[in-house]
Amino acid sequence: IRPGAKVPADGVILSGRTTLDTKALTGESAPAEVGPGSHILAGSINHLGAIILEARRVAEHTVAGQVAKLTTSALQQKSSIERKADTLARWFLPITLGLALITFLVAWWLEARGAASRAELPPSSWQLARRAAPPALAVLVVACPCALILATPAAIIAALGRLAGTGILIRRGEALERLAAVRAFCLDKTGTLTEGKFHLARLTPLADYDEIQLLALSAGVESGSEHPLARAVTAAAALRGIMPAVIDQVQASPGGGVTGQMAQQTVRLGSARFMLESGIDIGPAISFLESAENAGETPVLVAVDQAVCGILGLLDTPRPQAAAAIAELRGLGIERFLMLTGDRPEVAKRLAREVGLSEDEVRAGLLPAEKAALVAQLEEGPNGLPTAMLGDGINDAPALARASAGLAVSHGAYGIDLAAEAGDVVLLGAPLEHLGLLVRLARKTSEVITQNILWFALGANLVGIVLTAWLWPLIAPTAWRDQSPLAAAIYHQLASVLVLVNSMRLLWFEKPAPSLVTRFREATNKLNRLAEGLAPGELLHHASHHLGKIAVTSVAVALAFWIWTGMHLIKAQEQGRVLRFGRLLPAAMDPGFHWRWPWPVERIAKVNPGRSASVTVGFRPEPQGGGQPSQARTARTWNSAHANEGIIRLQEESLVITGDGYLVEMLATVRYRIQTEDPFRSRFELGEPDRLVRVAAETILRELAAQGAFADLLTSKRGELETRARDLLATRLGVDAGGVPGLEVEGISLHDLHPPPEVGTSYHDVTRAMEGRQQRQNQAHASTLRKRAEQVSRDEDLLAKSFVESFNRLESARANGAAFLFRLVTRAGSPGLVDFRLFWDSVGAAMAGREKLLVDSPNVPMRSALWFIPPDIARPIFQPQRGRGDASSPRDEESPSRQP
Q1: How far apart are CA 308 and CA 213, in angstroms?
Q2: I need a surface site. Which of 75, 300, 657, 849 has the fewest CB within 10 A?
Q3: What is the pLDDT of residue 630?
Q4: CATH label of the domain that carries residue 739
Q5: The model's pTM
Q6: Does residue 762 carry a pLDDT above 70?
Q7: Would you tell me how many other CB atoms lie within 10 Å of the CB of residue 99?
Q8: Which are the catalytic amino acids?
């Protein structure tokens, strides 16, 4: 088995070491390391190394096959809810037919009454039935019990999908319903609450036996058993290198012990009660039994014939998840717990204390029948509780079968063991890790099934009948009133989809979202496995095993493809004719599907006379552009830039010479279609219609351009050119030389008509020069007018200012003269007063705008006089000098004008 491949069978590794991904089977997230002698399961993914496997179980006998078998069995068995749904479905049909009949009769009566109220002629019975039929049909369509039928299976399938990868298998679909109602749990001890991995803690020989003989006898009796105690004994013998004794006719007594024959002697191994029931005196071993029990060990007696020859003490440890699982179940409302074990009370009570159970919840020393009786006692009576039994051994099978829900823990190396067959649910891997999830999921599944039946199956259908059958004629537009069956069909599908969507919620029930690293790692592993599977060597290897199938498939595909070439579709607007070995047959083909001889015997020629075709002249559309350029992009003038047009220009077609000797480039499109009188004759005799139309159009455009002037073609004669070219082309292509109709020309469009691009730049330069000259002339004229207006304005302003100045001076002179004459007259009468006034007017005028220093010292005997002294001379004289020791304030220094 190569790296990345899937293990095909259950078996034992002979050579090689690797790691296996067993998550899909056991729920173990970490890859398991395996080597020679390891048991591996089919369906596991090989990660690293190549291994050689010895197959032990194949096909449906593998774990994967048993899982598929149990899953199929779970889906085939119906729960009570599903059986109730089936019962409702059986009543659903007559109720639906009754509602449809009532709806039909009411609609008939309303239609007849409505016609009478509208004063119309009485409609016939057929007309009334046709009008009343759509609402009745809507009832039948919307009330189809699809949603009711899907309600339970969809939820169960989703729940099974959620449990995939957790190591939990549902053997019976009804187990989820029963588990949802559980209120009590009975738990087996060994292998269920404990790991079942016992180790030998005490080896005490009696009589004349030593430890080696005692262990050899014990290993020989237990060598064929899968019980945890038996595996511990055989493992201890192998560890010490002791060969098991050869013992035949081994018989197991469930809940008691094992008996075998060694030569003429009978060897027994089991509990003290088993020995007593077999008539063996255990007196010599009582003290050792008490010692083992006080140490919490599980004592196992070994007897040969009727004498005890030794005692074994075995210890077991509880599962790491046991205490947490029991606490979780208590939190979910489980009212009663019981530990049922065939082991001694002391050992059972010690384990109960470790996993969170009280001594009152322990029942020890039980036989299989007694376990089943205790389960029945819990469930029966007025205060009975629905009970789940969790066990692993064959001694738990009766209790598993008796309980409302049997949860079997499987320890089989190759799959489901016999005890698991009695359970409703099989727990692989760590059985207690997902026990709380199982109970919560069962309750949620029951809730979802109830929702599907009540809300979406019955409730939604009832609402649909009201909406689509009864209210539709009132709320729908007039044109849609007869479409109520269509509305009912759409509504019915929505109801079924709602059932599926509601059930799919269980797929994500309490499912943790994987981290980004985990997702990346899983995606990488998938890619690696895909790459390994698609490797050329692997493909050739697989192909070598299926050469016959590949050859047959290839021939079948080739034959089917060859036959498919004979299928032809003639559309409604087309006409078809058959070409048999290249010869045109006279019979025409009607529109529709036709199956003729495949290629190369026959071919079909198709024409569409009514379809218009177009041909470009002077250019071709670019491949990525596809089709004819848009009108907005192709409406050009001779001075256009023509950048990024999406076309390929062909100057050998587009360049023409005008009548006055100028070169002009013409780009045109011609639209035509084949004549309908005899389209096939036109098709085959014309050969290539596009080439014919292009050549004829190019010829006509050159002839018409040679008859016109350059300026006229660019301006006023462009529309006339299109019209004349269309008429001439229609005349030449309309009939051939024999008068047979040919092609019908619909029109010609000139997209471009201008000088060639090679001289376009020169035309642009000339145009720009002419425009620049005109612009400069306009700017010079505007500047002249502006400067003339500015000079006139300045002259007028100067004249106005001169007039104002002369007026002001004249008036001032007049005013001064009048004032002088007045003073002169006044001085004659009062000369002193006038002189005093004139003196102080002169002083005021003289002091205006000067710095002034006023000195007022009445103690100085002197005449008062007015001195005009320059400030730079007067300031040093009147402002005293200060020495360094002057204590005047800075404020005084900053304001010298304030000194006395």
Answers
A1: 13
A2: 849
A3: 44
A4: 3.30.479.30
A5: 0.47
A6: yes
A7: 18
A8: 188
